[in-house]
Amino acid sequence: RRAWGWVESRLPDGVHVEGVTGRLRSPLEFRGLSVEKEAFTDRVDRIRLDWKLLPLLKRTQEIGAIRVEEVEIALHRTDGDSAAAALDSLPPMVFPLALMVSEASVEGVTIHREVEPDALRRVDTLRGANLSFRDRIEIPELTLAGPEGELAISGWLQPRGSYAHSLEATASLTLSGQPEVAGRLAMAGTLEEVGLEAELTSPARALLAGSVVDLLGRRELWIEISSQGTVQARALRASWPDVSVEGYAEIRGTPDTLSARSELGIRAPGVEVVTLRSLVSWTGAVLEIEAVRGEQGEALLEGSGQVRLGSPEPTLAMEATWQA
């Protein structure tokens, strides 16, 4: 109790703990932990910690198990200018001790915004095993499960300098009224350039390859998506027409200016295949349809145009020629 009184008097501003039970040598249980910050408020009902003291002599903290129950996070309204400020670099994360966690679990995480108290997000469980926080963060296994599906993450991250990393995630998500979306994403690189590989396995099969250059600066993007076989429209939404699509699309640019080209084959029962090629660019609220070309047998449709997404309603201007 005397040791905890010393620790409690040195907690950072905005951090409060209602009660602590147990022994310093383990296990320890914290109740009513709350953190008040400008951007958020975090309240945790209970934390149970099983740890070992002796490894501290070697500057290593070994935690056999940490269990967290009922976490509520409220995101506050923040100043738009400060929230939108760009980062030139990420600060290094320095761990004064090597931290090893054999087992970690969090039960019941609820997140909501101060301005939208009813817009809740919930994670039922978060579980990790053999986590390591030393010169780099090692994540052999981390899983999240909630009402909308499951997510599993593994890999490593160097939390300083260029933030070198190699991470892989698999997910299975089901949003209300929509088919299951499942797949895998792998990313590896640094803040200077990250390579991306992804595979969608449901409700259609597709591959994605790409990269992002200068994540904290211009964020230059390249992505290529290609279907693996035909994509049935009704697999995406039951009310859609009985058509199928296969092909590829390529996207390049930055968040401010993007360009995309695609080539698709569209099939419908009893109808000859339609080949559709397009080249478009996006700048601000303007979508330029630089060229679109549709072919079916000897029939040919060519066109170009512009879509403006300003208020009160979007406007479309289009020119096209048809040849049969």
Architecture blueprint of SSEs:
Layout: H1 2-8, E1 15-22, E2 28-36, E3 40-52, E4 60-75, H2 80-84, E5 98-113, E6 116-133, E7 137-146, E8 149-157, E9 165-173, E10 181-189, E11 193-202, E12 206-213, E13 220-227, E14 231-232, H3 233-236, E15 244-253, E16 257-268, E17 271-283, E18 286-296, E19 299-308, E20 315-323
Parallel strand pairs: 4-5
Antiparallel strand pairs: 1-2, 2-3, 3-4, 5-6, 6-7, 7-8, 8-9, 9-10, 10-11, 11-12, 12-13, 13-15, 14-15, 15-16, 16-17, 17-18, 18-19, 19-20
Description:
The chain is mainly β. It contains three helices and 20 strands. It has helices at residues 2-8, 80-84, 233-236; strands spanning 15-22, 28-36, 40-52, 60-75, 98-113, 116-133, 137-146, 149-157, 165-173, 181-189, 193-202, 206-213, 220-227, 231-232, 244-253, 257-268, 271-283, 286-296, 299-308, 315-323. It has a 20-stranded mixed sheet that branches. The chain starts with a helix and ends with a strand.
What percentage of amino acids are in beta strands? over 45%
Mean pLDDT equals 88
Count all strands and give the number: 20
| Rg, Cα atoms, Å | 26 Å
Number of helices: 3
Give the structural class. Answer: mainly beta
Query: Which spans have pLDDT < 50 for at least 5 consecutive residues?
Result: 80-85
Helix and strand run: HEEEEHEEEEEEEEEEHEEEEEE
